[in-house]
Write a structure and sequence with these properties.
The chain is mainly β. The chain is built from 3 helices and 12 strands. The protein has 2 domains: 79 residues, Beta Barrel (Elongation Factor Tu (Ef-tu), domain 3), CATH 2.40.30; 62 residues, SH3 type barrels (Roll), CATH 2.30.30.240.
């Protein structure tokens, strides 16, 4: 089964095993009944807070020390249960590892997706060393071809040409 990163287990909340979710992917978590942590699937037994400041409790984790034991771990949600994305939307996992180029010029490889308040950015590890941040906006990203695992960007727009 294919999995998508939905957030990370944060600090415990109270004594009942609940915890804050850090870096929540609201789209994935709002409809999820279960999450995968360390190759083990857990049922979500409690939801509180707001979508951006989410608090969860998981099956078999009914005290503070159980929540603390999970702290910092990735929570994954099955891709099959994920909502349908629009035509110019991608899951971060789909972009990581894609080759980045400007026309025929090789730029590097996507290391990760960085979520900033204004937009999401591709962190690109340059072929010659160093990194480049590319905003996911149509002026900077000409095309994303997931089948070819390639992303065409405009270095001139980024002031790099």
């Amino acid at each position: 089964m294919d999995w998508l990163l939905a957030g990370r287990v944060g600090r415990p909340h109270g004594l009942d095993g609940s915890f804050h979710v850090t870096q929540p992917n609201v789209q994935l978590l709002e409809g999820a009944a279960t999450v995968m942590i360390d190759d083990r699937e857990y049922e979500i037994t409690r939801r509180a807070g707001t979508p951006r400041r989410l608090i969860l409790r998981l099956q078999h984790h009914e005290n503070r020390s159980a929540a603390e034991a999970l702290r910092g771990k990735d929570m994954l949600v099955a891709r099959a249960g994920a909502p349908e994305l629009g035509p110019d939307e991608w899951w971060a996992e789909e972009l990581v590892g894609c080759a980045v180029h400007d026309g025929a010029r090789v730029v590097g490889t996507v290391r990760r997706l960085v979520e900033l308040p204004s937009c999401e950015m591709l962190e690109v590890e340059r072929s010659g060393g160093g990194e480049l941040l590319v905003p996911l906006v149509s002026d900077a990203v000409r095309d994303v071809d997931l089948d070819a695992r390639a992303i065409d960007i405009d270095l001139r727009f980024l002031g790099e040409a």
